[in-house]
Structures are given as C-alpha cells and as structure tokens.
Design brief:
With 574 residues, the chain is α+β, with helices and mostly antiparallel strands. Helices cover 39% and strands 21% of the residues.
Length: 574
C-alpha cells in the first residue's frame, strides 16, 4: 500500500518560525496564532482528503502507475533533474500514529490481532524510530514520526549531501525547538530577538518586488481580455455538451490549441532574430554579432543568479502568452490571421455555426468543371488563423489524384516577410520556401465545388464559392475558397482564401472580389476588407536568397531536411 496527501499551506510570514522561537511570550501571540492556523488548516485538508476516499484513491493510482510504467526508471529520471535534484517537495511528514494503537501480527492460535504493546514481561520498549526512504527522490527535509509511551518520536532525515550536514543540523534543532516552544514544554525565548540586515522586512519586500510587479502586469494584461476568455469557455462547454463522440470534440479543440499556441510563440522568435541581426559591432564567423552573445551571457547570468528575477521573467512570459491569446479571442490581435473566437461576432451580432454550401455558392459555380481547377494559385488575401501574417509568397499548387476522387494541395510559403522582420527576413531557414501538404477527397454525394479537406487531425469541407473565367481561354483565373469547421453547433474555425492565377491583383480586381464575397454572405465569416490579411509578395523574378546564413543552413542540411519532410508528408497522404 502506498499513497500520500499534499498539504497546500502558506504563504507564511517571513521567518515566522524563527521569530516564534525567539520572541518573548508576551509579544508572540500573533505568531502563535499563525502556527495554530496552519495546524487547523492541515487538519481540515487531511479530513477532507479522508472523507473523499483520498487514501484509497491514492493507493489505487499508485498501484495503477506501477502496473503500466517502470516506476524505478521514473524515480531515476526524477533524481537526474538538474533543476530539482529529485526533490519534488520542500518538506514532508510521515506520521504512523500511536504505537500502542497499531494492530500486531496475527499469531498462531489467535482469532484476532492484538494491539501492539511496549511492555513485554520485564522488557520495555522506550523508543521506536524509523525512516521512510527518499534517497533518490522525495522531499528536501523529511520527518518520520511515531508516538510511543505518550511521547512523539521524530526521525529527521534530510537530503544529504544536497544540503550540507551543518545546515541540516541547524534545521533539525530548529524544528525540535519550535515544537518544544509551541507545546510549552521548554521556553527558548529568553534571548531578545535581533533582526540581521539580511532579515530586515524592507529588504525582504524589495526582493519580492520583481515577482509582484510581473504578477500585477500579467493579471492586468490577461484581465483586459476576460470577456474573450469567458465567451470562449462558454462555447467550448457548449461544444462538449453537444458532441457525442469525445474523440471528435478533442480533435477539434486540439486543432484550435495547436495554432492558438503557435502564433504567440513565433512573435518573440522574430523579435529576437531582428535584435540578433540588428546588433552592431564585429560579427563572429560572419553570422552572430559579438555584442549579442555578450548581452545574452549577461542576461542569462542575471536571471540564473536571482530567483526573484527568474520568477518574474517566467511570470511575465506566461502572462504575455495568455494576454496574446486573449487578444486573439476578442479580435484585438489581427482579424485576418488571429481571430480565435469561436462563433465570433460581426457588426455586434454573434454568428453561430457554419453555413451550408448552397447558402454561399455563387452562380459562377454553375457547370463548374473540377478538371479546370488544379494548377498553381497565388494566395492574394486570407482570413485564416492556421496561417501566419509573417509569411509571404504563399502559393497553392493543387493536383487531382489519377482516379479523380482525391486532391493534393501543396501549400508553399516563405518567411518571415521583409516587413515582419526587416533585419532578419533573409536569414531564415525558410527564406527560400517550405511546403506542407493538405489532402482531400471528392465525395460523390457532395455538389460540384465541395472538397473534403483533411489536416491536423480533423476533416472539414472546403467550399469553392466563386470562380472567374478567363473570357478568352475559359480557364479559371480567380477563385474564392471557404473552409469551415463546426462541432456541436459551434464554429471552431473558418478560413477564406482569395486566389488568382497571377501573383498580383489590381485594387479594382480585389474590390470586385470582395463584392462577390459579400454577395455570398461571407462578410459575416471574415471576408470584409478589414477582416482579411494581404499576403506580401516579392517579384516572381526575384533571385533566390543567398548569404552566410543560407550557406550555414545548407551546410547543416536544413534544406535536405525540409525536402525530406515535404516528401514524407506528401507520400504519407497519398
């Protein structure tokens, strides 16, 4: 049998234990209250744990973990952690209770187990000490307790040599002294409490300032988007309630999470890249400025040396991440590429779910010929949070399978765009392009113009809403695509592509395309000019980018890796 219960206590007043041991009794009432408040809270949490069948469940979980995993290896890996050195908790207490209330072993001839006794004839058990093992992983300070002859016996076994023997000895003495003081057994508080300079309250508060400031900024930043988070949670709960298959619900939600996380991760990468390539001074190996390396070493040293600054940086990073996601949920982070809201609004009204094809299909789709649709398309504008505004030269090379029942969309991008990262765009490993493939099928039960697209674990319809023919050749030269993913009556994703056979379009041509999209009722789903992102584009005749960084990427095989990944994705989807 195994199991444990975590007591979540604190925050504690700074050095309250030391003050309690050293402050005269007449002045220590509030400190004693702090101690007993912790005792009461520990008791409450423990009783709640027992009442909710916590011990039984903990044992079952531990037993289940033992059957499905190599616990010895998990303990070993935990012990190898450079951050914790295997110490998952600051302190731990094991209390086996009262010795004399424990059941003895069942002896031959006995019908019931007797209670343990300390008196056996002329022999008397005075002390019993034991220690729970946590040599590989566990607590930094551990005490194993047992009451024998109405006396509490504690075995103090800290993690030595992680903490040196002298510090462990001081901690153990202080631990026992605190218990003796609070129980009234011994009064250690005859000496006057003196505050050393390192223990002054003002200095202690100043040390906490970075963490407190970071927490305040993060709470304010995330709180500004509280309405967006609230609406999102309500929509997710509605979707979960209405979707019968849990795997279908999680596939759609994971699809959303994947891209919601991707955007805020990319932003700091681009910022750091521009800082890197904008740093003045001598360049090491023609690649990295020496001053940039020195700045990184200095920043890492400061963060590593100060726990408070390290905590503040982590809190700020986490707060910035959730604030960015929140901006996407309430439409403040870019309506074209990061409008994350589920069933979002248009002109103040919530637009629920996805439309049918007949609701958006335009007359230009009469007599639509799927065989004229494949080939190279240039994406001119998009409303789509699976894409990134930082990329450019986006193209879609569409092919039909030989049997005419499937199609392959070779989606090619370059990035970042010169305007997104003016100092580093040409140093990127994908500055000369990268590909990923989307695969679809043509369902004979669907009307012409509907493709079933599959990617990132979900399938959704891709509507070809409108096409424009070349009056001379009859070939399709413009197209509007609309993808929409709905689960449980909730619209999870909508994507709109304005595409052309030419790499650029005039303002008049774009205005006409917007009018056709508006006529199709697609403004409610993101097709209006303010809701779409224009794809940046270099001249088609622009030469391939080549510099020291591109030479380095080639030298380490990044180009071959991208080609291999592209081919494996393409082959895997056939």
């Amino acid at each position: 049998m195994a199991g444990s219960h975590d007591l979540m206590l604190g925050p504690l007043p700074d050095r309250s234990g030391q003050r309690l041991r050293n402050t005269p009794p007449s002045s220590a009432k509030s400190l004693e209250n702090d101690f007993w408040d912790l005792v009461k809270e520990s008791k409450r949490q423990t009783l709640d744990f027992i009442a909710s069948d916590g011990p039984q469940e903990a044992t079952r979980v531990f037993d289940f973990a033992m059957t499905i995993s190599d616990m010895n290896n998990l303990v070993y890996l935990s012990a190898q952690s450079k951050e914790s050195l295997g110490r998952a908790y600051s302190a731990g207490i094991v209390n086996a209770g009262v010795f004399e209330r424990q059941k003895a072993v069942l002896r031959n001839g006995d019908e019931e187990r007797d209670l343990l006794k300390t008196q056996h004839g002329r022999f008397n058990i005075e002390d019993v000490y034991y220690a729970t093992s946590h040599a590989r992983s566990g607590c930094l300070y551990q005490a194993s307790c047992l009451t024998v002859n109405n006396e509490l016996k504690c075995t103090f076994h800290p993690a030595d040599p992680i903490v040196d023997a002298e510090t462990n000895s001081v901690f153990a003495d202080s631990f026992v002294e605190l218990l003796e003081t609070i129980s009234g057994q011994i009064d250690h508080r005859s000496k006057e409490y003196e505050t050393s300079p390192s223990e002054q309250p003002l200095l202690s508060q100043l040390k906490k300032f970075p963490t407190l400031a970071a927490t305040a900024f993060s709470v304010i930043g995330v709180g500004m988007h509280a309405n967006g988070f609230t609406n999102f949670i309500a929509s997710v709960l509605e979707m979960k309630e209405n979707v019968a298959d849990p795997s279908d619900f999680w596939a759609a939600l994971n699809f959303w999470i994947f891209f919601a996380v991707g955007h805020p991760i990319l932003e700091p990468i681009l910022w750091i890249s521009d800082v890197l390539h904008g740093t003045p001074g001598p360049i090491i190996g023609g690649l990295v400025p020496a001053l940039f390396l020195l700045g990184n070493i200095a920043a890492i040293s400061v963060i590593s040396a100060s726990k408070e600054i390290r905590n503040a940086v982590n809190i700020l990073a986490l707060g910035a991440f959730f604030s960015y996601v929140g901006a996407g949920l309430d439409g403040q982070a870019g309506l074209g590429d990061y409008n994350l809201a589920l069933d979002d609004q248009y002109k103040g009204a919530v637009v629920k779910g996805c439309p049918t094809y007949e609701e958006v299909r335009q007359p230009s789709m009469d007599n639509f010929d799927i065989n004229k649709y494949p080939g190279l398309w240039y994406e001119i504008k998009f409303h789509d949070w699976t894409q990134f505004k930082e990329v450019y030269d986006t193209t879609l090379d569409i092919k039909l399978t030989p049997d005419g029942k499937g199609w392959i969309d070779d989606f090619a991008v370059k990035g970042p765009a010169p305007d997104s990262a003016p100092l580093s765009w040409d140093k990127s490993p994908v500055a000369n392009g990268a590909h990923y493939f989307l695969f679809g099928r043509i369902d004979e039960n669907d009307p012409p113009g509907v493709l079933r697209e599959k990617g990132f674990g979900v399938e959704f319809p891709n509507y070809i809403v409108d096409v424009k023919e070349d009056p001379e050749t009859g070939e399709y030269k413009e197209a509007i695509q609309f993808q929409c993913l709905e689960r449980g009556g909730v619209r999870v994703f909508e994507g709109i592509n304005f595409m052309s056979r030419n790499p650029t379009m005039t303002n008049e041509e774009l205005d006409a395309m917007h009018k056709r999209a508006e006529k199709a009722g697609m403004y409610s789903y993101g097709a209006s000019p303010e809701q779409m992102h224009s794809v940046a584009r270099r001249p088609v005749s622009a030469p391939e980018i080549d510099n020291n960084w591109q030479a380095m990427w080639r030298a380490i095989g990044v180009d071959q890796l991208l080609e291999l990944v592209t081919k494996s994705i393409e082959d895997g989807g056939r």
